[in-house]
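Bumping with the actual sequence this time:
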Amino acid sequence: MRHILVNHLGVYELVEVRATDDQGGEIFVATTDHQEIASNFVLGFLNDCFPNEKSPDECARETVTRHIQNGSLFLWKNSKGDTVSMAAKNRESRNAAAISLVYTPKELRGQGYESRIVARLTQKLLDEGKSKCNLFTDLKNPTSNSSYQKIGYRFLGESIHFDFMS
C-alpha cells in the first residue's frame, strides 16, 4: 500500500492574546455585500493550501455562503479602508473555537494583516466567553507559525494527513 502526505500541520492553542498593534485597521463580519471579495480570498486560500481541490470555484462559493449565513467569516480593513485579509471561526464549542481560513493575497503579505485579524478575532472569541482558541498551520510556513506564536498561540503538536492507495 502506497501513501501520500496530504498535509503536515501544527496544532496551536491560545488562552490569552498578547497585545498587538492594529495600526488603524479594523475587523468586521462579512455579509452578502462582501461575497465577491470573500470568494476571491477563499479561492486564493484553496489554491495556496489545497492545490489539488477538484472544484475550487464551487468550494469557495459554498464556503463563503455558509460562513456568511453563520456570521463566522471576518475581514480586515486596513487604515486606508481597503479589505486586505480574511479569517473565519469554526469548530465552535461552549468553551473553545478554532480560527481558520486565514488568508491575505500574495501582493499584500508581509504587512502583518494576518496577525492582526487573527489576534482581533481571537480576542473577540475570548471576550464572548471562550476559554481558548486553536488553529492549525502549515508547518512548512515558518512565517505564519512564528507570527501566531507572537500573538500568544502555543504549539501543542502535529496533525499529519496521509492518503493511502493500494
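The C-alpha cells above came from a reply further down the thread. The chain is about 35% helix and 35% strand.
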